[in-house]
């Protein structure tokens, strides 16, 4: 007799945006494991066509309320390439600081409020606050410090207003930047403690040799630039992204799924991929925290991502601290002027959740004629499904509720940002 | 009060940034969590308790047929329903599709558009069900959100100003970007709430908080046009994150029609 089991999670909790999960097991064999994104699309690439260059950073920020800076800065760098301008090293450093703030607040949110409840067997960060108040309060303070950096440099934490093509509208006051130092010194110590604590979690999941993909810059940890590299040996310029990766539409999702060519294989982006591929580039305290975590690298279980995020909070605090301490005077100029002209260019950065790739085309009238955006969650979708298929046979002995929770946990390991994933476009440009 | 009020948070088409503000209130978050039962907040908790709820916060705009059904059910389940943010109060940036053809948008993004369910428009929650209060902004302001929740807990009126960003700007002593720098700014016609954030950063207000009470857009855009800003540029200025808010929509359409 054929035995069919179905698990269906209609609304995944503790993820950003709206997704669901459908699993069908026939005679102990996993037939379907679909991580479905049903969040309605918002058509960003289409609606920025016909807009002015300077409007792009404000508009693409609205793709994601958790990682707006990733969208803003990727767009700025791509548009600056298309316009043939280069920003100063001072502007670049402030952009790194802003990006560090976003990493700190996004990772601190996920680690403490969304992910840790899974390891400690509770339903939410609110419930965790009752049993582990010091842990949650530390997490909220870390998050607030990340948000504070975004406010000082970007004007506000959700959808910063100070970011523009060419730099910043107004130079953040050097005194305000130095004012971040005391909080960041606390944050650095707190984050180092966090790495030690989360390294002792009970990591469930099946070990896997992930094919990770991330940026690798000439120097430093990957944040705002670099070549795209992979565990399997890829090493390409961001301009060649669409020759090595492809997006496909699947009927169960409003997000397109990315695969690596030529074999159309799923791949991993995000903190786990970055820490595995660029551990040698971590700043000293973060590297030491990784080395003394007691874990073997490369990390091979999806739930290890909580450690990778904690290590990256350390790295972001270290780098932010260096930049804040060195802020002796307001930067001048804070913005490089440009003359609108026709052109096209692409750029990739590392959003908190992984590789983020943008391409823009500008018409002769200085208006945007085409855009393509590939966010991290759409790239991880295939890997999430592959992980589910691998782990499911091991949980089939559990009752439906426990098996479903195990599936949900795998999805949360990836910190999917569904809002980001549902509005991107194959590279078809209006001419 | 014998039982703690029951709070629910719902999401439609949006970026999550407004409900994120609820998680960004730091020490106040756990205090709040102690004063209300957070019974439906998918982004933050696996604990889902069926309604009815005392207070419902709704983020996002209505963009699918299913959304229309879902918001009606949410309205039935919530005693006090508050829309939060530009998507919920005006349709958001995705309402720009209201000026195009939905088939063009679908075909531009998806290879097989027939599997995607999407309405031709992105509309405000209040276009579908009556609401009790709205918090403007793209994103909403944390302080206003906390004030609203406090007001609901205490049974008082929330302190949300109806005056313009221009007033906030003057009270902060910021040099006017429109007068001193000739930058077309929506501050005179945009509702206060951000603290004149953009003018404080030497740039124009682009209307995150939507139209203020009795805005005179015709006069303002007329001034900018006489000073040399092209009409197409002014259409874009009023058509952004609150493009479909009635006053901004009417002005964009008037300018585009060449009236």
Task: Characterise the protein shown here.
The complex is a heterodimer of chains A (431) and B (259). Chain A contains 15 helices and 13 strands. Chain A has helices at 44-47, 56-61, 68-83, 89-119, 125-131, 133-154, 174-178, 181-198, 241-244, 271-278, 284-291, 305-325, 376-395, 400-413, 418-421, and strands at 4-9, 19-26, 29-37, 163-164, 167-168, 213-216, 227-230, 235-236, 245-248, 257-260, 343-351, 354-362, 368-374. The termini of chain A are far apart. By secondary structure, chain B is α/β, with parallel strands linked by helices. Helix content of chain B is 39%, strand content 11%. Chain B has a five-stranded parallel beta sheet with strand order 2-1-3-4-5. Chains A and B meet through α1, α4, α5 and α6 of A and α1, α2, α5 and α9 of B.
Helix-strand layout with pairing:
The complex is a heterodimer of chains A (431) and B (259).
Chain A: E1 4-9, E2 19-26, E3 29-37, H1 44-47, H2 56-61, H3 68-83, H4 89-119, H5 125-131, H6 133-154, E4 163-164, E5 167-168, H7 174-178, H8 181-198, E6 213-216, E7 227-230, E8 235-236, H9 241-244, E9 245-248, E10 257-260, H10 271-278, H11 284-291, H12 305-325, E11 343-351, E12 354-362, E13 368-374, H13 376-395, H14 400-413, H15 418-421
Antiparallel strand pairs in A: 1-2, 2-3, 4-5, 6-7, 7-8, 9-10, 11-12, 12-13
Chain B: E1 6-11, H1 17-23, H2 27-35, E2 37-41, E3 53-59, H3 65-77, E4 78-84, H4 86-90, H5 102-109, E5 133-135, H6 142-154, H7 165-172, H8 177-180, H9 197-200, H10 217-226, H11 231-238, H12 246-256
Parallel strand pairs in B: 1-2, 1-3, 3-4, 4-5
């Amino acid at each position: 007799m054929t035995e069919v089991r179905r698990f269906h999670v209609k609304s995944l909790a503790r993820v950003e945006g709206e997704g669901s999960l459908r699993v069908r097991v026939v005679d102990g064999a996993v037939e379907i494991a679909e991580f479905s994104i049903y969040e309605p699309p918002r058509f960003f690439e289409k609606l920025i066509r016909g807009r002015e260059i300077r409007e792009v950073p404000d508009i693409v920020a609205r793709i994601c309320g958790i990682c707006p800076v990733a969208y803003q800065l990727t767009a700025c760098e791509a548009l600056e390439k298309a316009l043939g301008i280069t920003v100063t090293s001072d502007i670049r450093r402030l952009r790194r600081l802003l990006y560090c703030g976003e990493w700190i607040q996004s990772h601190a949110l996920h680690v403490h409020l969304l992910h840790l409840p899974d390891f400690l067997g509770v339903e939410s960060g609110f419930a965790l606050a009752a049993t582990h108040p010091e842990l949650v309060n530390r997490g909220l303070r870390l998050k607030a410090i990340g948000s504070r950096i975004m406010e000082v440099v970007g004007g506000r934490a959700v959808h910063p207003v100070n970011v523009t093509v060419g730099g910043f509208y107004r130079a953040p006051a050097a005194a305000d930047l130095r004012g971040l130092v005391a909080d960041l010194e606390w944050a650095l110590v707190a984050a180092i403690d966090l790495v030690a604590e989360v390294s002792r979690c009970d990591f469930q999941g099946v070990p896997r040799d992930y094919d990770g993909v991330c940026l690798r810059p000439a120097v430093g940890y990957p944040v705002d630039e670099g070549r795209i590299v992979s565990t399997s040996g890829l090493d390409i310029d961001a301009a060649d992204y669409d020759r090595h990766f492809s997006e496909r539409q699947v009927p169960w999702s409003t997000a397109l799924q990315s695969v690596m060519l030529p074999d159309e294989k799923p791949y991993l982006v995000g903190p786990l991929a970055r820490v595995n591929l660029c551990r040698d580039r971590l700043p000293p305290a973060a590297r030491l925290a990784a080395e003394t975590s007691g874990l073997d690298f490369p990390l091979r279980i999806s739930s290890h991502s909580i450690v990778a995020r904690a290590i990256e909070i350390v790295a972001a605090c270290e780098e932010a601290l260096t930049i804040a301490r060195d802020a002796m005077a307001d930067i001048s100029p804070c913005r490089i002027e440009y003359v609108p002209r026709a052109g096209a260019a692409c750029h990739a950065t590392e959003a908190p959740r992984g590789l983020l790739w943008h391409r823009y085309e500008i018409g002769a009238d200085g208006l945007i004629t085409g855009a393509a955006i590939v966010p991290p969650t759409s790239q991880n979708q295939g890997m999430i499904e592959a992980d589910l298929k691998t782990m499911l046979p091991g949980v089939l002995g559990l009752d439906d509720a426990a098996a479903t929770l195990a599936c949900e946990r795998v999805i949360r390991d990836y910190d999917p940002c569904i809002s980001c994933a549902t509005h991107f476009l194959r590279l078809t440009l209006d001419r | 009060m014998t039982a703690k009020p029951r709070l629910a948070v719902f999401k439609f088409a949006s970026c999550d940034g407004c409900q994120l503000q609820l998680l960004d209130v730091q020490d106040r978050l756990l205090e709040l969590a102690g004063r209300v039962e957070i019974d439906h907040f998918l982004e933050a908790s696996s604990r889902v308790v069926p309604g009815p709820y005392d207070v419902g916060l709704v983020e996002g705009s209505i963009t699918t047929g299913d959304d229309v059904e879902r918001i009606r059910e949410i309205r039935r389940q919530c005693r006090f329903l508050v829309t939060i943010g530009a998507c919920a109060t005006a349709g958001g940036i995705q309402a720009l599709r209201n000026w195009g053809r939905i088939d063009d948008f679908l075909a531009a993004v998806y290879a097989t558009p027939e599997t995607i369910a999407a309405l031709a428009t992105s509309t405000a929650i209040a276009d579908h069900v009556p609401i009790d209060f709205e918090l403007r902004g793209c994103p909403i302001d944390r302080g206003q959100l906390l004030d609203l929740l406090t007001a609901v807990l205490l049974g008082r009126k929330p302190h949300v100003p109806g005056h313009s960003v221009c007033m906030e700007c003057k009270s902060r002593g910021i040099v006017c970007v429109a007068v001193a720098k000739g930058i077309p700014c929506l501050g005179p016609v945009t509702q206060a709430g951000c603290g004149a954030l953009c003018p404080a950063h030497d740039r124009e207000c682009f209307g995150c908080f939507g139209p203020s009470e009795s805005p005179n857009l015709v006069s303002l855009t007329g001034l900018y046009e006489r000073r040399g800003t092209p009409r197409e540029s002014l259409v874009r200025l009023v058509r952004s994150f609150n493009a479909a808010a009635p006053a901004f929509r009417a002005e964009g359409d008037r300018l585009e029609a060449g009236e």
